[in-house]
Amino acid sequence: MTNTDGAIHIELTVNGQARAADAEVRTTLADFLRHDLGLTGTHLGCEHGVCGACTVLVDGDEVRSCLMLAVQAVGGEVTTVEGLAPPDGLHPVQEAFWERHGFQCGFCTPGFVMATVALLRDQPDADEEAIREALSGNICRCTGYESIVNGVLLAADKLREIAKSTSTEGAAS
User: Fold this and answer.
1) Which residue, of 56, 81, 106, is where some domain finishes?
2) In a 10 Å sphere around its CB, with 0-12 CB exposed, 13-18 middle and 19+ buried, how is residue 116 labelled?
3) Inter-axis angle of helices 92-99 and 109-122, to 10 degrees?
4) Integer angstrom CA distances of residue 170 from 86, 132, 165, 166, 167
5) Does 72 share its domain with 128?
6) Which of 10, 91, 129, 131 is the most exposed place for a label (fewest CB within 10 A)?
7) In terms of residue numbers, what domain contains 135?
8) Is the torsion defined by CA of 6, 7, 9, 12 positive or negative?
9) Sign of CA dihedral 147, 52, 64, 12
10) Is 76 a member of any domain?
11) Residues 138, 52: contact at Cβ < 8 Å?
12) What is the pLDDT of residue 172?
């Protein structure tokens, strides 16, 4: 519903919590997350959907939040980099990036992490070629990509180990 000042009330679920705010109809999801909800982990690089720094998950799909309007996400579920980690640590993808030094300045890292989460959810056994292809839309100007790819490979190992231990525990019940 549009307010008298031209803003629209936007309600969605972000990182598992119901969130709402008023924003102009032309507000991008990236700006809404950063400015209206205070979630600054989503970075804006090119603002043309080319660099991948603004990557988030919307209803499980990897999207460039600089290209999506906030009103397009109304009623949806958005996951940002802030929503990945459990309260007492890091998400396995974040741990793997840390352990393999998959970042330098860190500006592109949230986008790479979110793209990796989506990749490994869909392709848990992704090989180096699949990883490079999946992440080819994310740009890093610092690392040379080797440490990022190594981080993704380690993250895949970590997630497989978690899945294996979870299935083993379930079978023992």
Assistant:
1) 81
2) buried
3) 120
4) 21, 34, 9, 6, 5
5) no
6) 129
7) 92-166
8) positive
9) positive
10) yes
11) yes
12) 63
Distance linking the first and last C-alpha atoms of the chain = 49
Q: Is the pLDDT of residue 122 over 60?
A: yes
Written as one string, the DSSP assignment of 72-124 is GGTT-EEE-GGGTS-TTS--HHHHHHHHTT--SS-SSHHHHHHHHHHHHHH-T
Tell me the three state secondary structure of residue 172.
Answer: helix
Question: Which one-letter amino acid corresponds to residue 134?
Answer: A
Q: Is the pLDDT of residue 80 over 80?
A: yes
Q: How confident is the model at residue 2 (pLDDT cuts 50, 70, 90)?
A: low
> Do 44 and 11 belong together in one domain?
yes
Please say if the pLDDT value at position 173 is more than 60: no
Residues 118 and 77 in one domain: no
Q: How many domains does the chain have?
A: 2
- On whether both 11 and 77 belong to a single domain, the answer is yes
Tell me the pLDDT tens digit for each residue of 125-157. 999 999 999 999 999 999 889 999 999 999 999
Domain boundary among 41, 60, 81: 81
Taking residue 127's Cβ as centre, other Cβ atoms within 10 Å add up to 11
